[in-house]
Amino acid sequence: MVNNSSSTFSSWDSTFSGPLLIAGPCSAESENQILSTGRKLHSIGVNIFRAGIWKPRTRPNSFEGVGDIGLPWLKSLQDELGMKVAIEVANAKHVQKALNAGIDVLWIGARSSVNPFSIQEIADSLRGVDVPILVKNPINPDVDLWQGAIERILSSGIKKIAAVHRGFSSYNTTKYRNLPMWEISIEMRRRMPDLPMICDPSHIGGRRALIHEISQKAMDLNYDGLMVESHTNPDYAWTDSSQQITPDMLQDILKKLVHKVVEVDNPEIQNELTLLRNQIDHFDNELIGILKERMNIASLIGEYKSENNVTILQPKRWQEILTKSLKEGSDANLSQEFMRKVFSAIHQESINRQTNVNKKQEEIKKGSLIK
Ligand code: PEP
Ligand code: MN
Fold first, then answer.
1. With DSSP H G I counted as helix, E B as strand and the rest as coil, what are the percentages for the chain, rounded to 5?
2. Are the CB atoms for 166 and 178 separated by under 8 Å?
3. Cα 141 from Cα 367, distance rounded (Å)
4. Residues 152-161: pLDDT tens digits?
5. Which member of 73, 86, 205, 236 has the lowest number of beta carbons within 10 Å of its beta carbon?
6. Residue 4 predicted with pLDDT over 60
7. Which atom of ligand 1 approaches the CA of 111 most closely?
8. Nearest ligand to the C-alpha of residue 167?
9. Does ligand 1 have an atom closer than 6 angstroms to the CB of 110?
10. Looking at ligand 1, which atom is closest to the CA of residue 112?
11. What is the residue with the minimal CA distance to atom 6 of ligand 1?
12. Distance between CA atoms of 264 and 215, rounded to whole angstroms?
């Protein structure tokens, strides 16, 4: 992976120069496992070692982490390699224990960031402390909830915060364990542009075979780092065995990753991009003009329907529009999903227009009756 010298993490720690690399097993299992995995990961350039010692399991009666005994194992790793270590915290007690044990970075898991009470408890326990906090997205695709969790931690005075995108639960079986829904993390970055964004391809993918592709996508979207689950013997891992990769596999993926830049210095590439972007701007303006015209017609239809007592929603007509657009879209190489989203939004806006027209007409009628 090519390092990006303008890393947002260099302000966290001057030794971090490129995309931040966090890796380690899903769960700490033994001191030996921590040390052997840590040594390997350290040697391939991983910046921060991760391991869960308190595990938030979906169902009870499964392995819930080794608990407090794992803390000195991580200390051994810090002492031997000078490597930074991170663990998950889910309540004030965890925070206290982690801080007392000298853990360098704490992360808040997806099952905690979904709950403002838990987050507030963690935030309160962090007052006056200077430790980097990673906030994973909540399990449901709710940008406000994710932003709210980050704001609660920020208001406790913590300065070093990063968001971790680990995907979103879904009922349907898909290629992913947790749907990436990249648009949610893109929206988070629009709202909080200075917040570093880290991708967790392990929990998104749920399968070893997907880690490379998801990590590359994160690089393409200019993420600031990766958090990857790595185990020396993944098939025998006590938790999340199917998504963990060996340090060797991780090294291989890192070598293959192409790190892209946001701004290009080369004037030739810059010119070419500017020409293409000018065309995009031109078409965006055209689109806005066309949408304006279309909505004006929708208002006229609204008036006509209102005068003639015709319902605003005409299911048959809507079905016709959708079928026709999907067909024409497909001929034009536009995906069904995209066309469905665009036309549903246009249709909804038309309905809103017509509803407003209808309301106005009703008010006029009432007004003239009163007179
Ligand atoms: C983990 O990182 O091991 C973990 C439990 O993650 P998440 O909160 O994303 O499920
Ligand atoms: Mn895990």
1. 55, 10, 35
2. yes
3. 45
4. 999 999 999 9
5. 236
6. no
7. 8
8. 1
9. yes
10. 8
11. 109
12. 22
Residues 244, 246, 247, 253: is their CA dihedral positive or negative?
negative
d(CA 145, CA 163): 12
CA of 342 to the centre of ligand 2 (A): 36
Contact 358, 312 (CB under 8 A): yes
203, 230, 238, 242, best to mutate for ligand 1 pocket (most atoms within 8 Å of CB): 203
Long-range contacts of 54-59 (CB under 8 A, 24+ apart): 54/87, 54/88, 54/89, 54/90, 54/94, 55/26, 55/27, 55/88, 55/239, 56/88, 56/90, 56/109, 56/111, 56/112, 57/239
Which amino acid type is present at position 129?
Answer: V
Kindly report the average pLDDT of the chain as a whole number: 94
Which ligand places an atom closest to the C-alpha of 64? Answer: 1
Task: Compute the distance from residue 205 Cα to the ligand 2 centre, in Å.
Answer: 11
- Residue 88 · residue 109 · CB < 8 Å: yes
Whether the model clears a pTM of 0.85, i.e. scores above it, the answer is no
Please list, in sequence order, all residues whose beta carbon lies within 8 angstroms of the beta carbon of residue 350, skipping any fewer than 6 positions away: 294, 295, 298, 301
DSSP 8-state secondary structure symbol assigned to residue 137: P
Residue 285 C-alpha to ligand 1 middle, in angstroms? 43
Nearest CA to ligand 1 atom 2: 26
CB-ligand 1 contact for 26 (6 Å cutoff): yes
Q: Comparing 248 with 363, which gets the higher pLDDT?
A: 248
* Ligand 2: centre distance to CA 59 (Å): 14
Considering only CA atoms, which residue is closest to atom 10 of ligand 1?
A: 110
Amino acid occupying residue 124: D
Cα–Cα distance measured from residue 265 to residue 44, given in angstroms and rounded to the nearest whole number: 30
> Which residues line ion ligand 2, judged by CB < 5 Å?
26, 240
CA distance to 31, 80, 337, per residue, from 346 (Å): 58, 60, 14
